Structures are given as C-alpha cells and as structure tokens.
Amino acid sequence: MRKIYFILFLILVSFCVYKKETNTIEVYGHGEIKVIPDYVNLTFSISNIDKDPESSQKENINKSAKIIKALKDIGIKENNIYSINYNLSPEYRYVKDTQKFFGYRSINSILVKIENIENYKNILSKILSLGVNNIDSITFGSNNYNKLKLESMSNAVDNALEKARKLTSSLEKTPGDAKKIIELDNEFINSKKTHNLLEKKEEYESVSENQIISKGERIISTDVLVIFELK
Length: 231
Known about the structure:
This protein is of the alpha+beta class. The chain folds into two domains: 23-37 and 144-230, Protein of unknown function (DUF541), domain 1 (Translation Initiation Factor IF3, 2-Layer Sandwich); 42-141, Alpha-Beta Plaits. It has helices at residues 2-22, 53-74, 120-129, 145-168, 186-190, and strands spanning 24-35, 39-50, 81-95, 98-114, 134-141, 175-184, 199-200, 205-206, 212-213, 218-230. The strands form three sheets. Strands 1, 6, 7 and 10 form a four-stranded antiparallel beta sheet that branches. It has a four-stranded antiparallel beta sheet with strand order 3-4-2-5. A two-stranded antiparallel sheet has the order 8-9. A hairpin with a 5-residue loop joins β8 (205-206) and β9 (212-213). Residues 8-20 and 187-211 have low confidence and may be disordered.
C-alpha cells in the first residue's frame, strides 16, 4: 500500500514540475544605446637598456619625469596620469647561436586619461617626440557609461518581452511577470574585454604613419535571458 502511495506521490510531483515548466517561456533580448565617447585612455611605455642596472633605472626615471611634466604642461590633470607597471630585468640575445648578456632593460608603463578628445592627436605626437617607445593601447570611453549601460539593459528586457508576446500570440497566452533576468556577458561572447566596453561602430581613420584616431559613435550593448511566466 505504501508503495502505491509513493508511486502516486511521484506522479503528482512530476505533474507539478511539468506544469511549472510549461507555464514559463525563456526569451533572449538585445538592447543598444549609442554614445559619443568623451574621453580617451592612452597607455604607453618608456623603455631603455644599459649595462649597469642603476644607470638603466636612472635614465628611465629621467625620461618618465620629462614626459609626465610635458603632459601636465599640456593640461592633463595629475590625477589622470597613472603609473601602472615598472620592470627592470636583464636582457639576453642570441648571437651566432650563443646567448649573450645585452644589458638591463627598464620599462615604465603609464596610463593617461585624456578628457578633451580634441587634444588626443597633439598629446600623442608630443610624447612620441619625447622618447616614448611603445603605444600599448588606445581605448575610448564615456563618463556616463554606468547610466547608459542600465538603459541598454532596460532596452534588452523590453526586446525580450516583445519577442515573448509574438511567440505566444498563437497560443492564446501572454507573458506575465519576469521570473528571472540573466545578463549575458556579450564582451565574452564577441571578444575578451579590455575595460573599454564601448564597441567600435565605424572604422579607424589613419591620419599619419604612426597615429590613428577613432571617429564616430560607439554602441553600448547588452544581451539578456528572461524567463517570463505565462498567463
């Protein structure tokens, strides 16, 4: 008798689970917000080598100080200039299949936030003329990113609701409350993010052999998975 009750209980539980699953619908939604970038993050490095580690370090410090002073003179705020990495290490090179000591290389990496995008080209030219060896990255961003990201998320949920309504219109059911909203990492889906979360819409324009400027608007996008209850 207990076995019969147990089987009936399992059937009832299975029916409830099935009922719950058939009363929901999962829909993907996509939302976008267009924005004009209002700042540039420029990362560059100063590199030099010397047989003596102290001389290598001293030369790098002097070059870095000169570049930082020039940035301040141009109008970059001190709190928008960041030292993000410094490295001093021996360097070896192969000469005729033999590894030989070449010297101690000092590398200082600096991040500069340029709030006036119009000055980007002049600043890039200036630091290159003062001995910057590498331009490591250039990313464009918006100071209103968090607010705009929320707007793109709202648009994504609205898009999911519109899809759910179209999908259920022939079933004589309508989507009700959202039981769960999952934000998908579209930067991971497309390509790994740099913390420049603004996606490029227009192609870069080459302005000289060593300089590029990005023009046009960007798109902040969000993808979501929404589970709606059906009524």
